[in-house]
């Protein structure tokens, strides 16, 4: 931690800051520059009250020099975390491709899609039962019935199921029924939900918030891990920028960034980020090129008649063709599929 | 609704689109431009499946020409909504100033602040009991105990209390205990929460999400109103941009924008938006100049020792001085305080 | 300046950094934290090569603790700068309102607008002769002829003229012909232009770039001032964000921010920022409330037939009414008009 | 073009709009919806004054349905443009890799880098002689002398040279001396410069502005092409967003977007976008995966001692290794290197 004093600070003010820092258990080094005097903390600064110091007279600003996340930090956990998803493992050499429709629509639909993505090599089935829709007048998902259809598809195919949770009301039911619990972008800072998920035993797929920095994203992972559940899978799904041609702006440079900062596996969702089915292939391949540990892809057996997000869903045939390209891409970056 | 056809569309494709639109119950007008052919819907287009049409062969794009929100729309409700907050009313000629600490910290603290903001003319007391903190290691609020302290302060001062809800688990308790239920920026699209709040009888103070468009904000209000609770108060609290000098970028032009689009009252929070106490006064006055119906201001009896957000809290004396200026400002724009 | 070392740095790496800092003429203080070791510079760090140090082995990051701008910095120039514009002065107690059409269109038009804004109390006339248009097929301004029309209007009214320069080719001509040379948002980092304007004797009105931070904006002012021309007037005109209801997002909190960081006068352009004439009044009043030293407002005698930006131009009558309100607003914040 | 009327418009207002549209030479179709009446233009709407109509009484809004760029538009030029760069061609099957230092620093440096990137397979040499630096106190480039060093390197290696122009003052000299004239992000909307470059005979490498939409970028290409120079090469270099871990946010989904909208070749600059040398490899490979026609990469023989942007420069050895990977990547997406 570094404290920068204002020009014209008094000796008394400097003393005050020094004492407050020392009260937090650190030794303080003072360094007098020409225009600037700074104080550095020596020792563990965790117990120093940074906000209080920032408000003390004579203080210009205070800067943290270490990351605020610990359990998610690669510094304290240099090896990649390996998160089990059914029989697959995310974060290792083998890529994990999770595929399925935006929404579960019927027994037949989810089973048909499950079988086709399985035969193409997907490691898990995704499908929304509870849907976050910006309009209250849009289709809101089949809810509990949708979960049952997913379970049925799992029973018949053996594919683990991944689906989004939207409320703390459903934590218990999700823990019982699904294999990976997805937290959507809109709930990335729903801290009550994160805390409760931290007490479950199921892996959590944590999407990046639409306007969340990488640090905030890792802090949300930290919430889950601090509760005891260290099986967190991150998923980049595009951020909000001024550009409107694509639904969101896929931030692929976040992949090497997060891989350097954290040991957690990172997936990319090329469907939601672009919002356009014809862009999914190029962004999926680029994501693997950028170092992603896997993908979350929307596949629908009949996109023009999908109840939700048909515009960004690819067909089973397109998915099959994409998987072939991804195999070659994986090899090129030293991965497997 | 307007559909634009791709260059080189076929007569059959045009027919398909026309039929799909007509299936939604509208009459269709076709207009052939030089480069572009467009179809316009005549009649109520609500039942037309826009997403499906957007995916039909030959379609370049489809544009909505009406707002997707109805109950929040000023077109269908030209007069300002008046929302009761204790004995005050938000949305009328009289401005409403809601003030109090970021967090409830103790019986003494909340009562002292309540008394001082009341004597300066605040119409309600704010104070956080459940706190959304980006770090799991930060103070998370006094929770239920904090609600009790707020109730006690209300009992002794008569001021209605405003506090943030973070989970559907607490809807019932909040409805029973508080006067205005606040939904924070991070939960603006927590749709399950919005749905449940739509069934309560208490006014909802809905903060704008950090990266939410004005339309998305009004759609979240629509979620609450569609559930039956039309007492929604909007609150602009700054949006996330590339500028980092301020905590967020206060979007004051959103005030006249929302006032033209919707009949709901709009407040401004100059504390969270700037993150700096010395900016609160100028932004508070500017907000009233811009047409806001009131303000949400953080006031703390001892900012340097606040448990949360001291850097953006003003003191009771500063609040008192600000209220004097706001009175003059209110008169200048034809309002009262 | 503060250098943070990587975990696991070697004594040799630390020495290397220390020596490189000392080579820049500073004394170095080393402070060993639990997870972190930091080096602070004592003395004038201007000659230390920060980028080189950031690349040295063992270095995690390097942080500047002082602003990179000197001449524009209020720390070294605590009093407000006063910039003369004709007989008026910007930056003092009296506000300066600069008004006129987006584009100069004809002798009659510019003279008519000049006379009306003068009678309402404007201190200078604005009008574009060279226009930055996003399409090459749009009206590009009357160019040299437009400058002559502005000169003529000045001759007949006495109002100083403010107009935008778009190329270094015109610096000499502008210095000769106009009173205040405006640099538009798109040219805020056209450094060659800034350098050449730094050698002229005319005040420069420097608009903030669409996606420029406050620091970059002040650095562009520094370019002009470093060349010898200290008469720089800043102008906030809205930044680009994800919100599209308004043309740009007016950043009014930038006003108190810049006034605290710099001694230069700051204007606000409520016309370009909102892009909507009906929003100009509320944003103009709010800007003065926020502490602006004046305004730049588009006034057109016939907005529906303007050759450019009619949608954001107010009429002379609306301008007259606005000036009355601004007088009251000025008084409220201790200013004059 | 589509005009949407306000609720409650009068027959006279509708007539006025219709006549104004017809005055632009189009036939008008009126379609009456339940809440909305719209007018569609039949025929070539180029001569219709959209801004004027947007201001007419009774008009709610006006929407363009065709792109504003013509020469850059793939609709009117379905085949890829092939732009010659020395003996290479950009936009065809073969990828073009342009490499070299951020700044030309000396005869030896530029020649050494030129020879090494040539032997690794680069098709052109980049190097800055005129540098846009945010601080007037930073190294500004060797200017004319730097151009001479580039020419010398070309003479000795045969590599065509690419360098950035910053002012209209230098158009003639650049046209004479360099092979590809680069327009930097900060000058993407320096329209005077674009116009003058439109009259030269050299290919223009047009970087995307930091906060420019894809449409604005293509409009800037249109400026150059409208002047007669159709050899425009686009270059994505990251956009400004709220995320600050990377210098900018590389927008790789812009690649398939632009390739679908325009026939012009598109490069990616993984160095400026990330600002970090260790991210260059993954983003370079991802860019080719995304469909880019080539790359612009910063290579320096001694990054820790570079006069500019050493943090984002890779070494000749790293470049050599990258080229090997790019060859494999190219094959995977059906391209060559």
UniProtKB/TrEMBL annotation, chains A, B, C, D:
Keywords: Transferase
InterPro entries: Aldolase_TIM, Class-I_DAHP_synthase, DAHP1/KDSA, DAHP_snth_FXD, DAHP_syn_2
Keyword Transferase: yes
GO terms for biological process, alphabetical: aromatic amino acid family biosynthetic process
Highest rank taxon of the organism: Bacteria
Domain DAHP synthase ferredoxin-like per the UniProt entry, residue ranges: 1-67
SUPFAM superfamilies: Aldolase (SSF51569)
Pfam families: DAHP_snth_FXD (PF18152), DAHP_synth_1 (PF00793)
GO molecular function terms attached to this record: aldehyde-lyase activity; transferase activity
Keyword DNA-binding in annotation: no
Domain DAHP synthetase I/KDSA: from-to ranges: 92-330
Protein name: 3-deoxy-D-arabinoheptulosonate-7-phosphate synthase
């Amino acid at each position: 931690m570094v404290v920068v004093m204002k020009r014209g600070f008094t000796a008394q003010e400097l003393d005050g800051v020094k004492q407050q820092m020392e009260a937090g258990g650190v030794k303080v080094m003072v360094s007098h520059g020409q225009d600037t005097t700074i104080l550095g903390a020596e020792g563990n600064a965790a117990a120093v009250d940074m906000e209080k110091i920032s408000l003390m007279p004579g203080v210009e600003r205070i800067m943290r020099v270490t990351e605020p996340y610990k359990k998610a930090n690669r510094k304290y956990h240099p090896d990649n975390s390996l998160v089990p998803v059914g029989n697959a493992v995310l974060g290792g050499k083998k890529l994990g491709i999770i595929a399925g429709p935006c929404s579960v629509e019927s027994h037949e639909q989810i089973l048909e899609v499950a079988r086709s993505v399985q035969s193409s090599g997907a490691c898990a089935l995704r499908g929304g039962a509870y849907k976050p829709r910006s309009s209250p007048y849009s289709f809101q998902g089949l809810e509990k019935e949708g979960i049952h259809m997913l379970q049925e598809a799992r029973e018949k195919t053996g594919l683990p199921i991944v689906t989004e949770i939207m409320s703390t009301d459903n934590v218990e039911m999700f823990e019982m029924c699904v294999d990976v619990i997805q937290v959507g972008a809109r709930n990335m800072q729903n801290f009550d939900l994160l805390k409760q998920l931290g007490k479950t035993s199921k892996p959590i797929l944590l999407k990046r918030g639409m306007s969340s920095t990488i640090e905030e994203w890792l802090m949300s992972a930290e919430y889950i891990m601090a509760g005891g559940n260290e099986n967190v899978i991150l998923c980049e799904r595009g951020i909000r920028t001024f550009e409107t041609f694509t639904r969101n702006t896929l931030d692929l440079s976040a992949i090497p960034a997060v891989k350097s900062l954290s040991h957690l596996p990172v997936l990319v969702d090329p469907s939601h980020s672009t919002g356009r089915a014809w862009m999914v292939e190029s962004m999926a391949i680029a994501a693997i090129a950028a170092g992603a540990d896997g993908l979350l892809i929307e596949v629908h057996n009949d996109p023009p008649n999908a109840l939700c997000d048909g515009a960004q869903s690819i067909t089973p045939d397109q998915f099959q063709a994409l998987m072939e390209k991804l195999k070659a891409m994986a090899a090129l970056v030293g991965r497997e599929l």
